[in-house]
Amino acid sequence: MSGMTSLWARWLWGPYSRLGMSVAAATFAVDQAHKWWMLLVFRIAEKGRVSVTPFLDLVFVKNTGISYSLLDQSSMAWQLVLALFSVIVSLALWAWLAAAGTGRLMAWALGLIIGGALGNGLDRVLIGGVADFFSLHAFGFYWYVFNIADVAIVAGVAALLYDSFIGSRNDAANPM
Q1: 141 backbone dihedrals φ, ψ, rounded to 5°
Q2: Which one of 24, 39, 62, 147 is CB 3.0 to 4.6 Å from 129, fit for a cystine?
Q3: 150 counts as catalytic
Q4: What are phi and psi of 175, to 5 degrees?
C-alpha cells in the first residue's frame, strides 16, 4: 500500500507539479494583492478613470460575464457557477500538469493559467464579479479592461501554444 502512496505522491507532487503550483500560488497572490490594494488603498472606485500614460488608464470595472463581458449576468448564482467552473478547470489543468511532466515551460504556462483562473474565480465569490483595472487605448479605440490574472492567463496560453509548436518541430526533426 505504501508503494501506491509513493507513486501517487510522485505523480501529484513531482518536480514540474511543484513548479507549476508555485507559479500558480505566486500568480494568485500577486493578482489578489493588486486587486485589494487598488480597491482598498488606492480607492480606484472613488477616483474614477486615472490617466497613467497617453495609452493606459486605471479604472474599476466589475465584469460579471466571461471574456469581453460575454454571457453577462450579475446574479450571485451565476457568479458562483463561473467560480466553480474556474475551480474545475484549474483542477483539470493541474491533473494535466501532474500527468504530462514535460518540462518547465509547460509547468510555468499551466501555473499562470491556474493562478489567474483561481484569482478571477475568487473575485466572483467575494465581490460578485471580476475586478478589472487596466484600460489600454489608442486613437479613440479602447481595448477591454483587464487585470493581472487576465495577463497571466493570456501569457500561459501563449506559452502553451509556443510549447506545442516547438514540440511539433522537434518531433518532425527527429526521424523514426
Answers
A1: -100, 125
A2: 62
A3: yes
A4: -70, 155
Q: Which of 31, 57, 123, 150 is catalytic?
A: 150
* H helical segments located in 37-140: 44-47, 76-100, 104-127
Look up 31 and say whether it is catalytic.
no
Residue 123 CA to residue 107 CA, distance in Å, equals 24
Q: For the whole model, what pTM was predicted?
A: 0.86
Please pick, among 31, 57, 123, 132, the residue that the annotation labels catalytic: 132
Per-residue pLDDT tens listing for the chain (176 residues):
555 555 566 566 677 888 999 999 999 999 999 999 999 999 999 999 999 999 999 999 999 887 655 565 768 888 999 999 999 999 999 988 888 766 899 999 999 999 999 999 999 999 999 999 999 999 989 888 999 999 999 999 999 999 988 865 554 445 55
Q: Helix, strand or coil for residue 6?
A: helix
- In whole angstroms, how large is the CA radius of gyration of the chain? 19
* Among 90, 83, 75, 145, CA closest to 120: 83
